[in-house]
Amino acid sequence: MQPARVGDASFFFSRVNPVTERQTLRQQLRLSRHAFDTHEHAWRSTAITRRMANHHLFRAAQHIACYLSNDAEVDLTSLMDCAWTMGKTVYLPVLSTTQHNRLHFLPYAPGDTLVVNGFGIPEPVSHSRRVTALARLDLVLTPLVGFDPWGNRLGMGGGFYDRTFAFLRRRQHWRKPHLLGVAFDVQRSPVELPHQHWDVPLEGVVTESGVSRSEPRQLAID
After folding, report:
1. Number of compact structural domains in the chain
2. What SS3 state is found at 210?
3. pTM for the predicted model, two decimal places
4. Which H or E element spans position 178?
């Protein structure tokens, strides 16, 4: 068996208690994705986007929310190109100026003007008439820092996606939008991540290995 390398999530999680504070986990997992050099990051991102592009949830979706890569996240540029080629509408998250730690989603097409938000991330120019109703989205691809097999997602700590999609927790039957995480395999935790009752679980996660379904509920991503 190959020894776990420093920065590998399995190396880290085999040595910590699952109740370790989120911030400690977040720092270690960010290091794991920053450990890739430019070439490795690129080919791993390409492998992930190919997995997603061939999945039935992507192919069936017409309205897809993506994100622009930041802090060594998986790069979805080629997936957005694929979506546009297939005639799909792509949306990007925009920080809400009226609701605390919430996101709006605006349509995004090649050549659209982007502005840098308070976190240094480019986003479409906000305009209330362009904000898309969340129920209109078919598929939401979320960035993350860490994830586990039970749908728990560790983000950057702002709770933006959890607040924005809180309505999904109140549904007895899973309906759109489908909420999928996007990550590298090294960001996977084999033990349950610490989480709160208000966290919104992921339906699944796409990595280099494929699209995995979260275990707690029966969901339609096989």
Report:
1. 1
2. strand
3. 0.84
4. strand 178-182
Dist. CA 25–CA 147, nearest whole Å: 11
CA separation for the pair 65, 94 (Å, rounded): 11
Give the domain CATH number at 196.
Answer: 3.40.50.10420
Task: Tell me the C-alpha distance between 172 and 177, whole Å.
Answer: 14
Residue 30 within a domain: yes
Instruction: Evaluate whether 211 touches 204 at the Cβ level (below 8 Å).
Output: yes
Containing domain of residue 188, as a range? 9-210
What is the full per-residue pLDDT of the chain (222 aa) written as tens digits?
333 343 445 445 444 444 456 778 888 899 999 999 999 999 999 999 999 999 999 999 999 999 999 999 999 999 999 999 999 999 999 998 777 778 999 999 999 999 999 889 999 987 766 889 999 999 999 999 999 999 899 877 677 998 999 888 776 666 789 999 999 999 998 888 877 777 888 999 999 999 999 875 444 454
Q: Which two tokens stand for residue 203?
A: 């339906």
